[in-house]
Structure formats: C-alpha cells, structure tokens
Amino acid sequence: MAGFVMGTGAVTPEEMNIMSNRIRHRGSDRVGAHVFPRGHLIQHYLHADVGPSGTEIPVPLAEGPHIVGYDGHMGNWKDLAASLKVTDGALREERLLLALYNTDGVDMLRRLTDAVFAFVIVNKDGFLAARDLLGIKTLFYGYGNDRLYLASELKSIIAVTNDVYEFPPGHFMQADGKLVPFTEYPEIPPAQWETDAQAAVKEIRRLIEESFSHRVDFVFETGSLLSGGIDSSAIAVLAAQAFQQNTGGKKRLKTFAFGVNESQDILNARKVARHIGSDHHEEVVDLKQILEVLPEVIYHLESFDPSLVRSAVSNFMISRHARQKGIQVLLSGEGGDEVFCGYAYLKSLPFDELYTNQIACLKFLHNNASLRLDRMNQCNGVRVVTPLISGPLLDYALKLAPELKQKPEAGDRIEKWIFRKAFEADLPDAIVWRLKQEFSQGSGSADVLPRYFEETVPDAEFEKVRSRFPMVRSKEECYYFNIFTSHFGTGNAVKTVGQWVAL
What we know:
Number of domains: 3
Strand order of the largest sheet: 2-3-1-9-8-10
Low-confidence stretches: none
Radius of gyration: 22 Å
CATH class of the largest domain: Alpha Beta
Strand content: 15-25%
Number of strands: 19
C-alpha cells in the first residue's frame, strides 16, 4: 500500500504539501517529491512497500524522463518482468510500469491483467493516469484555478478544491483531461459453462495457491485476519502452511480476530486458530469503544454507507491491534463473496440472472467494499494482501455454472459451494459450511449500531437531513452522513460515495 498526490498547471509547493500531509498515513516511512515542467508529484510509501532505503522516490526511468507515482500490486509481475528484463528488488513494480510504458505506451494497460493499481506516469509531454477495473486501488481528481489534481484519497483534493470526482475504474487519463475506458466487464455470460465440479475444485485450488505464492513472501512481519468464515480461513490455512515452511517450523503464524463481546466471529476464529496451530490474537470490544472510533473511521473511510461503516469499524480496530503487535502486512480473504457469489441477496435470484447480478456486484467494489479493504489497514500503517482478488481466478469463476457457485440443497442454496469444496479437506466442517455472514454481522457490530442510533438520533434531525439528501436512508446513516459532511462538505464529495443495496 502506498499513496501519491499530483498537481498540474501553476500548482504551488504549499498546495502540494497540504495535499501530501493529508495522506501521510499511506506511507510516512519514505516520501519523495518531483517537480516537473507542468506540475508536481509527491509519493508516500510504507516500509513494507519500498523495502531498503537508497532508492529514488518517485521512481525514474533510467532511459528517459519518466517518473511514476504508484499504489498497487501485480500478481503477474514475474512473467511481465521476464519479457522486459526488469530485475527483482526494491520498487520492482514501479520499474516494471515504466518499462511497459516505454515499450507500449497506453497499450501497456492491456497487459496488467492480474494487477490492482492506481498510478500516474509523468513525461515531458504530460502524464498517463490509470486505475484498475475493479477499483481496488482508489483514485480521485479535481479542478481549481486552471489546475488539475490527482490523489489517492478524497481528503487530499478536498483540501484544495471542492470540485472533486472519483476517478472511474478501468479508465485512463492523459494531459487533455479526457477519461477513456481501457477495459470493461464481460457483460454477456460465456457460451459454455464449466459444469465439472471435480475439475473446478482442482483448478480453483491451483489458481488460489498460485495467487498466494505470487503475492505473499513473508519478508516483512506478516499476520492473517481471521473471522472464522470460509474466505479468511482458507487464506489462513495456506498462510500457516507457507509460514511454517518459510521459518523452518520455528515460528507460528499470527492470526487476528475481532468481535463485539463473544461474537460468532470470535468463537469460530478460535476453532480455526486451534486447527491450524496459529499464534492467535483477539480484539474484543463493546459499544462504547466502537462509538469512540467512529469519527476517525469515517474520516479515513470517506463514506457514510451503514453496511460499509459497520464492517470498517471491525477492520479498523483489528488492524490497529495487529499493528500494535508489530505486524506490517496483513493477509485478507476479501474478494471471496464477489468472486464466488457469496452475498445472501444473490441466493434469491433465478440462476439465469446470477451472472448479470454478479457483474453488478463487482461494480460495487470501487466506491464501497474496496474502501474498507484499502483505508482501514492503510490508516494504521499496515499493508493488506488479498490472494482471492486475482485476475485469473475471477476470469475462471465467471465461467463456472451458477449451480457450482450456489449449490441447491434442501430447498435452499449453499453460497460459494465450489470454493468451500476446494478447502473441505483443510478445515473443520463447522467452518467450511458455516452460513455466510457479512463481516459486520459476524463480528457483532451490525447488531449494536443500528439499534443504538435508532434510539439516540432525534426524529427531527433525521427528517431535516433526509429532506435535503434523500439518499440518507436511516438514522444510523444520518449520523454517519453528518460526520462525513463535517470533513468533506455537502457538494461533489457526497456523490463519490457508493451505497450498498441494503442497510
């Protein structure tokens, strides 16, 4: 995880420093600036992003006047690097981006098929900025006084202008300021589904293990989030095995669970931790502790969506706890629900509508669920790694027959069935076949927060806010909305917020 800010036109050092300071949490370990003829770029890195000191930041291309600002991760780095003779080492992905740009120009984006990213490449003629299709890495832009601003977070741009927008996923922008799509979701289902369950289990396991090996190296102090659900448990199993091999069996993987009192996540995470033999840590909190962190969570999250805020609280508090334990990198099972159709509302749909709705679900990521993944770890100085968010894995999953992703059984459907089968032999049955719960439900925050705000937010306050902003759907959302607008205003910033299909 990292972050950058850029301004073009007659930007001042004062403006850039204000923007930069707003995202220092994205990497105060290493900071570098570059002033170019038409603007200014500042890059932030955590130690876990950049590694040893001594490398120039922002990263320059040795053969030309190109500079890169970057936040992302490439699963297919090794294959691309081999073709371009890019060596391993510090800032290897940034150096690869510049090599791709030098070779292919804008067409380089078509080769980033297994990567999440937001970047800007600056050259003597202008710049190229781009964001990945899923929108896992966040990016915003804004205008003011004939200047264009780009930044990893909304708060940077709102510090210098209210004319702010989300940079759309799957698009690029050059010096003319036009947003151009470079990829899109496959809206039409495949002509032929993969229906062989045995073959699918084998291929899913191979793809996940390959994605894990491409993304996880234990160079920095690494732990694994563990909710006791199938997604985080599958990643924890792989991590515990790999960690044992990496340390010669001398250390145990640290796992981290969060819950409100004795929540279901806490109880089930303990089962998994015992099963895999991890060094397990818990953060068990009450309502008072949650309420204390809500303003900080909403400021960093840059959203007021209730479902997202509830789960973000859980992420924020457990990430902070892990950082206090010395963790620099956290592994997450994020992405399993989107890849394998895990959300409860999808189970009520006819099978012939599942594919279309899965694509729609993926489109929610860029300004909703991915914010929790990015922001709640980053603000605590922790890099998060997500092996289930993989280009090849998603491509394969979209070809799976609907009944493999949601298996009909006893008048109901088992969500993520084929994914569960892929890890059936590695985990207790109670974990493998545990009913899907959103993170906020399993951790307990979804139980206490809506009830609390229903009782404490006055009817008059709710109606006053809703009369001006009809998108505010509940007293809980009203409370979060007021915190959000105190930081970001009621203008364009509100339009950058994505709202989930249900409260």
